[in-house]
Amino acid sequence: MTSNTTSGNVCSPPMQSTSNGVFQGDNPLDYALPLAILQICLVLVVTRGLAYLLKPLRQPRVIAEIVGGILLGPSALGRNKSYLHAVFPPKSLTVLDTLANLGLIFFLFLAGIELDPKSLRKTGGRVLAIAIAGISLPFALGIGSSFVLQATIAKGVNTSAFLVYMGVALSITAFPVLARILAELKLLTTSVGRMAMSAAAVNDVAAWILLALAVALSGNSQSPFVSLWVFLSGCGFVVCSILTVLPIFKWMAQQCHE
Length: 258
Prior knowledge:
0% strand
């Protein structure tokens, strides 16, 4: 007599938002809202403490935030499975990632408000030259290092895609990190800050184009035009924002003269 067995991954049930409290016998860490509050408080305490410790070294606060993320993540404290499953369980990462992306969107929106497009047009040539110089040397160094590391990668990896990936990885600019540093140093509204932000934006656009090329060269099971469609969709979003959202914002600014 034979029996058929079906094996598969069992999905964990979604977390409820709030608990009835400790006195009702509930563990607050099993619910989304209390756990998110604990995670945010833990991140703030660790990053602020590191910022205080790094202040004599005159390091920007974003460095403390990066180091704090490494300490709280799987590279340091996350190696303790009890801590990882209690404070940062996999089922809670969706909420935490959503909050992080919302914060990043709001921060970049505030950083964009500080930029003046008219002043950026006057320095277009210098911005382009800085962006080209900023991406060329790291990209060349990335390709050079990929030849050294080529013996360590798995067999069957597309060499061309690997070269482009390494070049992009070393040449791309962390735009949010740069904006955070300039804002903390109060350089975001200066001519140097505007030029740096504009050059970083041009740098990121070029890097994403090269990344799309690397995805197309990797030859995965998907269509090689997927990355092209993603890039064209992003361009369409930018054009749509300029043609529709920008006039709406100008109209709103005219209605609020004060």
